[in-house]
Amino acid sequence: MPENRLYVSPDGQDDWPGTLDRPFATPHAAQRAVRALTTEMTGDLVVAFRAGVYHLDEPLAFDDTQADSGTHGFRVIYQAHGYGTADQEKVVFSGGREITGWSADTDGVWTAPIGELDPRRLAVDNRPASRAARTVGLPGSVTKTATGYVTDSVEPQSWPDPSGLEFVYPGVYPWSEARLAVAAISGEGSSTTITMAQPAFDNAKSLYDSKWYGEGGDGTWDGLAVPSVLENNVAFLGELGTFAVDCSEPGGHVLHYRPRPGEEIGKTTAIVPVLETLVSGKNVHDIVLRGLTFADAHWSGPTRTGGYLHYHGNSRHERGEFQKIDMGADVGYVHVPATPTQLPANVTFDAVSRIVLEGNHFTRLGAGGLAIEGSTAVEVRGNVFDEISGSGIAIHGATRVTVEDNLVHHIGTEYRGSPAILVVESEETTVAHNEIQDVPHNGIVITGGERARDTQVVGNLVERSMGALMDGGGIYLSAPQGSSFAGGAVVRGNVIRDVLTSYNFGLYTDYGAAWITVIGNIVCRADTPIVLQVGPPMENVAFIGNFWDVLPGGYDDPPKTVTVAGNTVLPKETFDDEIKANPAAADILARAGRRV
């Protein structure tokens, strides 16, 4: 079939016709041209972007009511020029703004006015900078109060712009990390009073109200007793490559940055994210995005609400009541959000079909990377996700979504309970041959429920998961995954190694997990490869033909409907060599990970 082609270049003009020699200048101009052509498509329509950075002033929004979809069985393809060849050009869709007007103070710290911007991320010469942080908590002897904290140290009284401070609580639940804003700091000669922002602090006290008696606990647990890390204050700018935002002057915010060696004012480029959505799609179909980089996007949720009250995965409390989950008199209880809110993503597709995202790079993003919700027949293939504040890929309530051959690493840099790949109550989802590396909590999360069925988790390579928080694993599944083994979840041929924090499980079937077959996987260097006793108990789960380096607890006396058979324990000290020497295990190892 004939192919129609339009071109876009940073050197073009939007009033040109979009030809190779007279290209458009912006993605939005190309989109307007596409809309005039889709009703009479006789072949695929390709929009080819020449090399460069395309600064988006507004999201690139695809809407079926605006004729953005492919028609007559053909697709609209947005791609880097030369995609799939050795001459493929580098194309960046950026939601950021370059910061200029820098000056250096006597201490070497750069400052620049940024107006009303309040960025949580900064990229300097395309390298992420870190928020300035104090990693030893509050100074002095600290007591939690009804409204915040009191310390016998007067040091906090010297910190400028205390209202910009954010306290971080790793392990507020073992699997959660909370962030809470400071409202004010006051004091006298011998003590300092820290008042936290409301209603976030009161909501946090309600959400993280728990008792824990398991594993020898005495029932006492207060994850908010004292923050472990303090972020975003000029007083903390000790490390090279760190930044802080002073918002003490409304509308006259100032960005402070301590440069790395070799960075120079006038030669170094600093970008702060501005847009919260880079690309979105609603009810569209037959669109392909490939070979593009999506970078420098913002999320202002914690600033708007006074904190990030994480619970599990991508869920957090933002408003509403709390539900008490009683795990039994011998275990304890926790509270959860009655109506949890999901972490958004900077690239989103809602109620779409036949969408392909291939060979793209999602980076320097302040929310999640990609979210697919309520959609059908979506392919997410061969992409790279890194330097993302939240999750890499999130699938919610979808059907026939394929997530294959992606590389996901260094995600959850700010919201550290975020999974690399998350699938929530979806059906016929395939998560296969992805590589996941260096993530702070779970690698792959599959959450079940009434709609969940026929999920395939196959041939993934998960390395160095659980780098910050506890009570998770390389692959985590919870709740029923269907109503029979035939329609349930299959976890097959995955390799999980180096699950880092304590109290973790390589393959974790948790919280009433049911109708799951775990077959032919490799797990090594985790606390334990699987767990057999969870609450609520798992039912109808089979662990067959797996290889691991330690015998799981309770292996010889599993729950009544749980099958453990044909699994092999290889010596921990020589595990890697033993795997390669075992033909079946070596085949699993050889097939795991990306095929691109």
Q: Figure out the total of helices.
A: 5
Share of helical residues: under 10%
The gyration radius over C-alpha positions equals: 25 Å
Mean pLDDT level: 96
Poorly predicted spans: none
DSSP strand tally: 56
How many angstroms does the end-to-end distance come to?
28 Å
Major sheet, described briefly? 22 strands, parallel
Task: Characterize the structure shown.
The chain is mostly beta strands and 596 residues long. It has five helices and 56 strands. It has a 22-stranded parallel β-sheet that branches. The radius of gyration is 25 Å and the shape is globular. The mean pLDDT is 96.
Q: What's the arrangement of secondary structure elements?
A:
Blueprint (H helix, E strand, L loop, with lengths): L3 E5 L18 H9 L9 E5 L2 E4 L4 E4 L12 E5 L10 E4 L1 E3 L4 E2 L5 E6 L7 E2 L2 E2 L1 E2 L1 E2 L7 E3 L3 E4 L14 E5 L6 E11 L4 E5 L3 H8 L3 E2 L16 E3 L10 E5 L6 E6 L11 E4 L5 E4 L2 E6 L1 E6 L3 H5 L1 E6 L2 E3 L4 E5 L5 E6 L3 E2 L2 E6 L2 E6 L2 E5 L2 E6 L2 E6 L2 E5 L4 E4 L2 E6 L2 E3 L11 E4 L5 E3 L2 E3 L6 E4 L8 E3 L2 E5 L7 E8 L8 E4 L2 E5 L5 E15 L2 E3 L3 E3 L8 E6 L2 E2 L13 E4 L2 E2 L5 H7 L1 H9 L5
Parallel strand pairs: 1-2, 2-5, 3-6, 4-24, 5-25, 6-26, 12-21, 24-32, 25-33, 26-34, 32-35, 33-36, 34-37, 35-38, 36-39, 37-40, 38-41, 39-42, 40-43, 41-44, 42-45, 43-46, 44-47, 45-48, 46-49, 47-50, 48-50, 49-51, 50-52, 50-53, 51-54, 53-55, 54-56
Antiparallel strand pairs: 7-23, 8-9, 9-22, 10-11, 10-23, 13-20, 14-15, 15-18, 16-17, 16-20, 17-18, 17-27, 19-30, 21-22, 27-28, 28-31, 29-30
Protein name: Right-handed parallel beta-helix repeat-containing protein
